[in-house]
Amino acid sequence: MICDNLSIVNGQLHFAGQNTVTLAKQYGTPLYLLDEDYIRRQCRVYKAAFQKHFGPGAKPLYASKANAFRRMYQIMTEEDMGIDVVSPGEIYTAYSAGYDLSNAYFHGSNKTDGDIAYAMDCGVGCFVADNREELLAIEAECARRGTRQQVLLRLSPGIDPHTYEAVATGKVDSKFGVAIETGQAEELVLFALELPHVDLAGFHCHVGSQVFGEDIFQRAAVIMLEFIAHLEHTHGFKTAQLDLGGGYGVAYTEADPHLDVEEKVAEVAAAVKKTCTRLGIAMPEIHMEPGRSIVAAAGMTLYTVGAVKRITGYKNYVSVDGGMVDNPRYALYKSAYTCYLANKMDEVQDFAADVVGRCCESGDILQPDVMMSASVERGDTLAVCTTGAYNYSMASNYNRLPRPPIVMLHHGESYVAVRRESFEDLCRNDM
Ligand SMILES: *Cc1c(COP(=O)(O)O)cnc(C)c1O
Questions:
Q1: Who is most buried in 91, 157, 221, 233, counting CB within 10 A?
Q2: Measured from the CA of 249, which atom of ligand 1 is nearest?
């Protein structure tokens, strides 16, 4: 199976050691499940690999846009993980969960004046500034408060990570960051160094997401370090921190490779050390920002099958009680997923159908051409695997559908971490 937290017992799909058919009955569908033990394990794997290969100052930061709610930030506190945040809403959620925001890095390509002030109110440790306007706004807010703010600059190293266009972020013509190649990055560094309330700690890059390319991170690191060495040699500026972003790919189907995090971190560390030696600079404190690779395989979504439509000579549809509202990724990026009929795992899977949602959109497809048992019928439980990243965090209320709850699986027990939205919740702000 695509992840080691999946198994089959008596023809039924088990996840994190628990029966998904029973969980679907107990909590209702659609239902997000999250394997808490898997999330904690991934945090520990990243942390151990960082300590081992980059040394004590290095740290992994959980990119919380992958899946953000209070319990997640508590788990990150308990696992002693740094975090990335990208909006005041994420900052509020982390703050209200008791997360110490001095360990947070604030990203985003257009932070408003209000965002900047709110992040400072909440004590966000480091801002990752994307552009000149943002640097000026940070400087102005600090001047007003009489404080200083630690800042990284987001640079674009000019690398094509060969992932989907929509999630490639490190190319020269990207909307994110400042290009090194055009000389604009160097100009902005010199500008930042003149700002009295901005502490320029270093640089950040993020080449993309769902990246499997052999040497993408090493290439990005080399380009960033060459820039860092250039700054040191020509302007005497010493870089304290280098953040190499997130993006490691995860296996959604049998066709995807499995990345070994420890091995990947070791490869990047080897390239970083070698390059620093070649350039004659001290190794900066290295950070990375995994999101997907921490939470994706910790997730599963359960649905109940409604209609089964057999259009003779054309195709078949299996409709479920959720869809693009709780998982818009196929509609957005044509993302592949593995689906199972959780209560019919032992039957021959010789029936091909598109698994579709209940929204009034032809594009509301969870996954096309899924093979399953021909006995599929109303009431069956359908599981979509690897939905822990960018599902709940991208969910909407289109068609006035309430968002599903998140149930955490921990040490063989389950508990609700986010409750199911009610109809009242839907009308909460309606005057
Ligand atoms: C989205 C994002 C990440 C996380 O990417 P994953 O593919 O989920 O690992 C990290 N850093 C930045 C700046 C991001 O925008």
A1: 157
A2: 7
CA-86 nearest atom, ligand 1: 15
Q: Which of 77, 102, 103, 73 has the alpha carbon at shortest distance from 89?
A: 73
Instruction: Express each pLDDT in 1-42 by its tens digit.
Output: 888 999 999 999 999 999 999 999 999 999 999 999 999 999
Query: Residue 223 Cα, ligand 1 centroid: separation in angstroms?
Result: 19
Return the pLDDT at 198: 98
As annotated, the active-site residues are 360
- Single out the residue of 159, 179, 249, 242 nearest to residue 212, CA to CA: 249
> With pLDDT > 70 as the criterion, what percentage of the chain qualifies?
98
Alpha carbon distance 271, 53 (integer Å): 11
What distance separates the 2 farthest-apart alpha carbons in the chain?
73
Q: Is the CB of 247 under 6 A from ligand 1?
A: yes
What's the 294 CA to ligand 1 centre distance in angstroms? 11
Q: Which atom of ligand 1 is nearest to the CA of 154?
A: 13
Are 125 and 150 in contact by the 8 Å Cβ rule? The answer is yes
- The span from the CA of 33 to the CA of 388, in Å, is 8
Domain ranges of the chain: 6-35+298-426, 54-291
Mutate to test the pocket of ligand 1, among 153, 288, 289 (most ligand atoms within 8 A of CB): 289
Tokens linked to 65: 């846009």
List, for residues 223-250, the tens digit of each pLDDT value.
Answer: 999 999 999 999 999 999 999 999 999 9
CATH number 2.40.37.10 given to 6-35+298-426: yes
Q: Which range (92-106, 169-183, 400-414) has the least confidence?
A: 169-183
Determine what percent of the chain falls in helix, strand and coil, rounding each to the nearest 5.
35, 25, 40
Contact between 22 and 44 (Cβ < 8 Å): no
Q: Is the CB of 291 under 6 A from ligand 1?
A: yes
Amino acid present at 8: I
Indicate if ligand 1 lies below 6 Å from the C-beta of 380. Answer: no
**Which CATH code for domain 54-291?**
3.20.20.10
